[in-house]
Specification:
By secondary structure, this protein is an alpha+beta fold. It has a single domain, classed as NADH Oxidase. Helix content is 38%, strand content 15%. It is built from eight helices and six strands, in the order H-H-E-H-H-H-E-E-E-H-E-H-E-H. The chain has a four-stranded antiparallel β-sheet. Strands 3-4 form a two-stranded antiparallel sheet. A hairpin with a 5-residue loop joins strand 3 and strand 4. Helix 2 crosses helix 6. The longest helix is centred in the middle third of the chain and has 22 residues. The radius of gyration is 20 Å and the shape is globular. The mean pLDDT is 94.
Length: 230
Amino acid sequence: MFTRKNIKYQGISLPFFHDMTDAEMQMAALDYIEFMQHRHSVRNFSDRPIPRNIIENCVKTAGTAPSGANHQPWHFVAIANPEYKRRIREASEAEGRKFYAGGAGDEWLKAIEPIGTDEKKPHLEIAPWLIVVFAQRYGQYEDGEKFKNYNVPESVGIATGFLLAALHHAGLTALIHMPNPMEFLNEMLGRPKSEKPTMIIAVGHPAKSATVPEVAKIKKPLHEILTICS
């Protein structure tokens, strides 16, 4: 964390390290691949309630992510308030109507056609929780003086990945929504101008009728996403 104090580096013993044999590491890696391959984004949610402490603990996991200079330039707002969810849905659908009416451009619309999305966003009200992810473009002391944050998009992206994995580990489904513009969220949720909303994550259980796009199961093979330099 960044403070006014001149804090110098001081090393401490590694708090924990899970030491495994090569065989154990191989098994753990394969187990995790299988586990994460069962993660899916769905647009059909159940309204089954999710206890607040589960959301809190998943966000706590996100807070353990590495960040530039350890500034942790993120803030998460978890929303269960029906009125807030209604307003977010209305704003998102209004933006979506413009997007799908041609504002996105033909190439973009063609790219997302296999995903099967449209301007209708009922999940933003049905899902029991929405989590809005804010990126803190700069920090501020209590007196309002600013200080710089570093590698903000990268840091927030890593923390969001931690959050999605934690939600999946807790048996939940999550769907990312990135409407643009989203500045209304700052005012509605009481967040400062120094923070930029980056995405809305709908969280809950999938409806019994939930489907996923067939194309979403097609992932790039390893040789297309990995280069080994040995």
